[in-house]
Amino acid sequence: MSDGRIITHPILPIVKRKDIEFYFDGKKLIGKEGDVISSALIAAGHHIFGHHPKDGAALGIFCANGQCAQCMVIVDGIPRKACMTALEAGMDITSCDGLPGLPETKTKIGHEREVTMRSIETMKRDVLIIGGGPAGLSAAKELGANNIDILLIDDKSSVGGKLLLQTHKFFGSIDDCYAGTRGIKIAELLRDEVSSLKSVEVWVNTTAIGMFADNKVGLLKDGKYILIEPKKILIATGAREKMLSFPGNTLPGVYGAGAFQTLVNRDLVRSTTRLFIVGGGNVGLIAGYHALQAGIEVVGLVEALPKCGGYKVHEDKLRRLGVPIYTSHTVLSANADTNTNTDTNTDKNATVNSITIGKIDDNFKPIKGKGKGKGAERTFKVDTILIAVGLSPVDELFLQAKAFGFDVYAAGDADEIAEASSAMFNGKIAARKILNGLGLDSVKGAIPEDWIKKAEILKSPPGKVVKRKAVIKAISDSKIYPIFHCTQEIACNPCTSVCPQEAIFIKNNPLTGLPAFDPELDCKGCMRCVAVCPGLAVTLVDKRKDREFPMVTLPFEVFEVGDKYIEKGKKIIVTDSSGNELDTVSVEKVRRLKDYPGTQLVRVRLHKDIAERAAGIRSQAPEVAEPSELYYSDALPDSAIICRCERVTAGEIRYWISKGQYDMNQLKAITRAGMGACGGKTCGDLIMRLFKEEGISIDKVTNNVERPLFIEAPFGIFAGIDQNIKNDRRSPETNE
User: Fold this and answer.
1) What is the reported pLDDT for 124?
2) Residue 303 within any structural domain of the chain
3) Domain hosting residue 37, numbered range
4) Is the pLDDT of residue 345 over 80?
5) How far apart are CA 459 and CA 465, in angstroms?
6) pLDDT tens readout for residues 474-493
7) Pair (487, 404) in one structural domain
């Protein structure tokens, strides 16, 4: 690591980028070409971007996806979201302390600002696709192949969506959804396929800000307002992360797992040294794995349910690497200092420095008691807490388009929360529906029956965890054979596709069943099944030279220590699937296959009694996960922030619920909850949860009336005044 930057990574290429000078609160800092402001600031050690006007609470990054305004800064006198604004040389950036003022009408040298107005351009398109993630790109690929006039927009600087953040290999099947290929590579493949289609136009840095009753869509492209009049619309805007209510939940250092992946995997910023994860679904488990790949200590993960909801193979990867997982536990508080429990985050320099977790009962209520190691409550020193407690569809544009009578479709997470492999299939299916709607012949618009079946399989939840039978004698007597450590049926079969001997098969469902090795066929030891497995759940046992101490090949995709790969002769700790230590041995050999360069194939000799149980290598020392002696008690849940934008607490909402106020619009008018920059996107779910906790049936609650625009937009754009943040850029030190 250098100045908060990741300079080596086991998977991601490190491209040298040009240094950029900019200013933050009057101090000269160095960023990198291609940075957004938030990443440049965090890389330089600045985690506080401003202070809330209500109570002076410190504000930092939260979603890193443009959905909130927690990272607001002032850029050359104009309020901007730091996570969505590209860094440029000479930028004069200041903290947003309180409410930002109106921009100056004169420049710093006394001249009136020039304002140029233009007429608003209206364009017609056959299909407008909003969102360039796996669903949107897959739909564009299908439609573009049929020469449909398409405009695809995305609010980031590059298409790919969450695929751009995924360093792990994908599940599913190779033929249908690139199984065994890393998300970052899938994004590249889809992008190249779409850009080769002449009928598809792609606009990046473009945001859809509203749907209008005259069947036009308002877009903001690079500061310029444009209207699009499409025949069909596909909403593929993905999902936003849900938030939890707990004391200290708005401290800088508490943010979504997706924001963390954006910082680490897209921007190559090592934003933390010690983190804790709340949520045991796939998002949380994968974020933990990505952290370890970036050389970050993962102190632990809590899951409120008795077992993690994500794939067992993802959970096992973390356990094998040395990350403790606490099921039937929850976060009790995020703490900002070592002396007192910080419930309100009013210290202007407060950031996370520890987390307190606690065991919960069958009714999800915390069990009282504290004590290092075995107590119900434990506190761990950390500087970052990742919240990964589920996703909500970004579907407001879809609902408004539907209300205004657009011919609108949805795909991916905007339609239904599922894995990216499912989103790709749903994008293809939505494209076929659009083709039918455009009146094309049934051959082009027909939806194959197997597409529908596979889409259902790909979005299905993981099956039950089963206990695999011991390896049968016929295989044990073979010279070399694979061991499959996956014990849960999920949509995944790349190991069956890559075996050149066709010796790996799935007996029942060829996509969701568990793989097995055919003892009648010979394994040649090519190791492709070990390298391709997305769950790193295949190992190879080789008894050709030594049956007592066979050679075992283990997959490994993180750095063993610091920024180095495992090398021959290195002592390593071998574990079983649950992370239990089996033995400490020396590495005999390390290989990487050409088709899977990011996966190290580490070969060691183990005694025959443990060879088939060996599943992984521990990379994190046990002491990393030791709790501290600090304890925080008497946390006040009523003080937890529900509405981040307006800093409305759970206690305020509960008070008005107790007074019979069940109308979300009235609650907004009384408390300002939902009135902030994000428009209730984060607090809406939390308020609904409070209604449930207070025993109020949801059918008695009146929902918010959505605001006409879903993203903040300067008034000037509607008058044809283009936004330009490059004006008046000069050194704050000289004011010249």
Assistant:
1) 96
2) no
3) 1-109
4) no
5) 18
6) 566 668 999 999 999 998 99
7) no
